[in-house]
Amino acid sequence: MENRIGIRTTYFHFRCIMFLAVVVAAHASVTHGISTDLRPRHSWNTLPVFFHSANTSGPWSDAAAKQIARFAMATNEKNHAMPLPGGGTQSEEVAGPAACRQVKAKDSTTDTFFYLNSVIDWPFNYNLHKLMQENPSWRLKNASGGDVAVIGSNWGYNLTNDDMRAAWVAECVNAAKAGCTGCFIDQANVAESVPGWPRGSPTVAVYAAAHLAALAQLAEELAKTDGYAIFNHLGVSTYNTRAMMIEDFVGSEKCINVLQTIASRGLTIQAHAGDQPPENQCLHGDTNSLAAFLIGAGNYSYYHCSAAQTRWSSNPAWPAQPDSWLDWLPEYDMPLGAPTGPATQQPSPSSPSAHLWTRSFASGTRVEFDGGTANGTIWWAHGVVQSGSPANLTAVANGCKWESI
Fold it and tell me: Which one of 168, 186, 198, 314 is least enclosed by Cβ atoms within 10 Å?
């Protein structure tokens, strides 16, 4: 059956299902002789933290690159360093790997990542966008046969097209070969749809299967380079997933449960806080979110809170001016130690339907989170007591909504 995406629905759907079946069978094994257990450096001695930002005005300064290398994982966001210092611009396919190499030169043990969306064709000076311009069949189509608009007027990747999918996979693999550990893959949800088509339609089913097949194929290709991808939102391990981000982490019982569930699957996790509430300044790393993270974190779980106003870019005037991505907070150096066990819970004194969570760490640090008030307290081993400010319960309820678990 033909559809307006431009593929034969039944046949392609069958191919995607067969590919995913092979992926599931091979999961947790060794792919092409390379161990699938690819990990960033990790220590419980202090808070494990990650970095994900961009300098939209040009390359990282030497001081910034040195600072970024202190983090175990570092992603350069999609609009990094496109302007050149002497004028003109460069493609992100050049700027991204250059930033990876710049950070790696400061510390070769920092895992570095190129940004690539799995749904949206961002026109931020990507050479891949030029290929999309030249190949109309690479763009998702609506029910009328026109190009689908995804967030504004941006095109969507038609990953059901073999050539488009190969180019998309190569975009990331080439970045890895050029100096990055792998790629941060945005919008890697299980249930992706096509704007303008009913969710239950064969068109959407074929696209969703192709999208997941592309993620699994990318992970397989990256493993050949000793690299891996960070799949944003994808908390299941079925698709060769090794690492993922919880983009909308907050201090809430829901986020604790999401973090615990994904950590129990052995995945590397980035917990990104700061989106909620909208005025969040991430003071002291946002104590409530940090406490919730420490309650639910497993091995290879990493944290960062970026102020809602800056989100995914950094202040080029740093360190003369503060930046919530580049600043190294005192909390990052406070004594932690491995957890002495999983978190325990008892009924919350503030709400009969919530829980009071506690967890202790080898250094003597102890953490408490009250699900009824969404407030956290951290008693650091060296005597500092960190208490969260009153939580905005309405805003907190918006956390951890995007994850596929």
Answer: 198
